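Bench notes, afternoon.
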Amino acid sequence: MAIRRRTPKDPEGRMPLMEHLRELKRRITVSALAVLVGTVVGWIYYDDVYRHLSQPFRDYKMQNPESIVALNFGNPTAAFSQQISISIFAGLLLSSPIWLYQIWAFIMPGLTRREKKISMAFFAATIPLFAAGSWFGYITLPKALAILYSFTPDEDTSSNIQQTTDYFTFVMRFIFAFGAAWLLPVVLVALSALGVVTGRQLLRGWRPAVLLIFIASAMITPTPDPVTMFLLAGPLVLLYFGAVGIAMLIGRKRQEARPDWLDTPEDQASVLD
């Protein structure tokens, strides 16, 4: 029986293409299994998850008893399909520490030992950031619903009876969008650690970055009011400048580790030749 020899690990984190593909497959498998386990847990506690996600809707009905709003299951399979989608959503949230780590771990082999220490310290904030962003979206949701439902004409013949699937799709996308948006600093630090951008470049481009953050916030938040947009864009701007500081620290450490003989243009040209 032939014994398969393991490919020796490159000290600089380099690996062949097939090894990269096997590593990607392994990361995806682990993430999928974690989501599956989280989905099972979400299915078991479906009633509690349903109650929490529909709480903003019930709060609006209590605050506006004159409004005719209701959630409707449009067909016999709607309740079953809704339980599956909500369970998967709960599974994604519960397993987020695992699949977020798998994404980061796939990038990690390309970093130096010093960059790994810096980036791992910042990655420790990834899970709290995602959780905080999701929670922030959840507590912002009642205001968003109140604004959207306020457009219903105030007449006896008007009502806002919507499909349950539409409501929960809106809620889940809203919460997940806030959680994903708060991962902006992690993405920026990863790009800086990989050498794609530098902290100085991020700092010089803060004006267009802030503009893009507000534009993206306006697109993510489905409400027309500026309050919800600022609730998302404000923390993102602060997180952006926090990521700039970490990126500049990575650049400074990288510059300290740079050999002195590479500082002159002549030496750099000779290396390139």
